[in-house]
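Structure record:
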Amino acid sequence: MLDNHSGTDRLILVSDDPAASEALAVHLTRHGFVLVGQVRSAEAARIAARYTEPDVVLVDAAIGGGWRAVVEALDGVLESGRIAVLASYWGADERQEAAESGIGAAILKAVEGGALALRLREIAGHA
């Protein structure tokens, strides 16, 4: 089921897994996001964010170099609260570290359907 949304939430996906990135891109564009960047590294995320001014950045926690490197690269370019990290598992230590990093959300990959789109829209401030 598709969201009733205008498709104005601008999103950058950061993942070095092409198949996962493409699946997420298809899913989220179906739910009203405008994909303004699909990148594979922290540096590419910084450059893309500077030039496309996204509402939210979704980072795969398993990215080479780690999600923290992406958050650090985006420091000063994008509000940290506009960053979401998608992971297979968030233990207590990971949750605390994520909270301390100032990201908008640590989201489990088990989130399905429109729930992921809705959560990202909340982070973007458009829910």
